[in-house]
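Notes, Module 5: Reading structure tokens.

Key idea: the token line is not a picture. It is a compressed description, and you learn to read it the same way you learned to read a sequence, by spotting repeated patterns. We will look at two proteins. The first is printed below with its tokens.
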Amino acid sequence: MSEPVRGCVLLLDGTPDRSRGAVPNPTAHALAGADPRRFLATPSVDVVQLPGISGPQSVLAYLQHAAAGPGPLLVWVTGRLMVPSRRAKELHLGLSGSTPGSVRYTGLPWAWLTRTLRAHPGPLVVLADIEADTAAWPEVAAAASGGQLADGVPLFGVVTPAPATPFREAGPYTSAFLDVLRAGDPGGGPVLDVAAVHRQALDLAAPGERTLTLQYGPVGPLLANPAAAPAPVTAPAPMPVSTPVPLAVPAREPAPAPARVPEQPVRDREPARDPGRVRAPEPARDAEPVHGPDSVRATEPVRATGSVRASGPPRTANPVPAAPAPAAAVPARDDLLPGILAAARAGRHNEAAAMAAAWEQQALRTYGPDSPEAGLWTEVRADLARLAGDHGRAAGLWMSAARARLARGGPADGEALAAVKRAHYCWQHSGGQAPGLATDLLALWEQVPGGRDAAEDVRTRLRALREAPPAAAR
């Protein structure tokens, strides 16, 4: 029997020590503590963690070994992209001790990574949550827009400008991606779509304007779906027991027709048992189908009380095909809200948002994008964003919910007006995001009765924000 194909998760951290001192990269630390063996949809997974490794040749050896296997391969890259301070501006992933002056010798050329992984024969994805310093940013932006950063390798993630002070928490994209992985897709199969998880993570992380988002290439079956329903275990079909056929013995001479003898019951004509052989179990006589307590037994066969005339093989009733299992429906929102709100109130906002987003996707597939069921989950996500303090995102979600309610019920729908009011409240607390949201909010107030005063309030606040100094606007 062939052994199952083993998967591999390679965690590569390219954070130069000099930029962080003794503090490890919190993003890489979060990945290592998230049980990476559960990431892949395969029973056997090897995890290789390379924190603070020095020397590009050592990293290349690990990459070549991981790419040689046929199983699914996930390479998660964290750290910093750099370019040499002199000569060629080739992108490098900084390693231990890398500086702009030494990265040409101490860093890993990014082209080595893509060229090595391109030879992998099985499912592959590279997830990146990396930063780029000021000198490398133009090269990174050009490579990302032209596709050279992926160079034929499935690549998903973000590139952010290097901060002046190292972050003390994991990157928002990685945190959101891990939360979406933990929540899974309750209505999906055993494998998650990497592109869908990537989009949900971006939706939760809400990256800034200068963040470069990476999404290149299709990905095969790779990420495990922890929320998928287990496959039904069906009992194997019973093997048919063939009736032994006696060997035909030619008659020596034609025998006269015997006198008619009354037929004996079947139980009196059992074949003789051979004590030297193990006989297959015989099917039970007069067997009845198993009925549930509420089953109707009107079609139960009548059993004969006298002798049975064996004029041929016994007839078997045609089996009744089992009714197909009904499609899984989305549980009621009120049944799921307590657990989601408990996570939000405990401070696990990304986890709560990921759970709500997963159930929203299930409602979209089950009921459609314009259904009230899907709209309710949009409102849940809006309230979760408000609880997390992201008022700009909450305002945008409430406006989406209001537009959906107006499309279904028109301006007379009181719930649509309530959604616009909630969007207005969150917009008032959205700070620097308010100007970008004002146009949509004004359009909504113009569609509901009594919205003139509220629309004027939006215009007044918008003028105040535009006339205020930059510091006050923030």
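Here is the second protein, with the sequence above and the tokens below, as before.
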Amino acid sequence: MSCLSTLLLRPAAALCLALWLGAALPGQAAQTAAPVALTVWMHSGPGPEREALEASVRAFQQARPHIRLTLVGQEEGGYQAALTAAAERGALPCLLDLDGPNLPYWVARGALRPLDDLLDRAAYQRRLLRTLQAQGQVDGKLYALGQYDSGLALWGHRGWLQKIGARIPASGLEPWSGEEFEQVLAALKKAGARQPLDMKFDYGVGEWLTYAFLPLVQAQGGDLLALRGGRLQARGALDSPASVQAFKRFQHWVRQGWVDASGQGGRDFVEGRAGLSYVGHWTYREYQKALGADLVLLPMPRLGPGRPVTGAGSWAWAVSASCPHPQEAAQVLEHLMSPAEVLRVTRINGAIPGTLEAIFASETYGAQGPLRLYVDQILDRKARLRPVTPAYPVVSAEFAQAVRQLADGADAERTLQAAAARIDTLLEAPPPKPVPLPAAVTTAAAATPAR
């Protein structure tokens, strides 16, 4: 095989690995055509998740040595900036992974190629979790496939809950009511918990605050955006009485000392100072190692009159509009979406497998798995995706800033009214600038008959 080489997305900014694994194996018949070269970008620096994808690449190359893959890994914190810079130059890779909520933005910029004529869409609709089916579609076309999904729930410290005599819900069918949940928080505080509920404010101001807090608002009848007159608007949704009341309730938790919003309590749960932690599946290994048999997974509480709400959506694979070899890129996608490869990556990153076959075979998320609750919340339609709009990146940033201000004690009504006004201004802005495409790709697209 050809040698490993190191590539840089930008000087001193990218951490990446290039795998040139497509040379003919010893004894293999020579290819009559030149190998096809594809570049694949992923949002991961050095670590187990990238190693899993490297293994996926090696498995693909063994089966299809005529397709050479260059795998480039980028630390998540700089990945969006790297994609944006590449798009401005018309230099996006053939295959790339995108954070699901940002997919409409890239579609609006003309950066992605629909997958409908490259894959058996009906087959994927039967195989994928419903949340990932919805996430990958924009305006009725399929643009992305996700190997895995995400979810929110409550992690509980069994010792603390038993100490206060709390009922421990056995399944998602019997969650705590809002009143019972707050009684548990009050009892934990009285029993000596420094922080009854860890809400991961140590994650900082970013996508976490939107992902975590929007379901809490939606469960109480509020929302971030609503469709009015055929247009998405924040006014009347984010600043609605239900949304305002939901945030006032959260502020009450902070004032009571049930939540530490300072960002200093990120270790409280694993070190036994918090009774509950509101976070996702990705903490399972860390929490299991710290608490052992004391760790218990609890369903989202019923904070409003309807059913509980949890988050959904995660990273997904797409093909760029500038890719000169979309058929070969689709072969890579098919490989990555196979049950074996979905299980390979989810065993490493702990995420919810994105296909039904992989869930069935998963030791963690299968019928008797310790994290099955996350799957059940999706199947029971408690999981909601974040708003679908090309403006999502900036809308989410505004929402996150508002959450941070409210955690610091800002007036709920005025803060949400101001945030709604700013978001509506962003939604009314002109669509994002299209990315430049190579002339050869543009010409080929124009000559391709509709299917």
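Summary for the second protein:
- The longest helix spans residues 48-63.
- Confidence is low (pLDDT under 50) at residues 1-31, 440-451.
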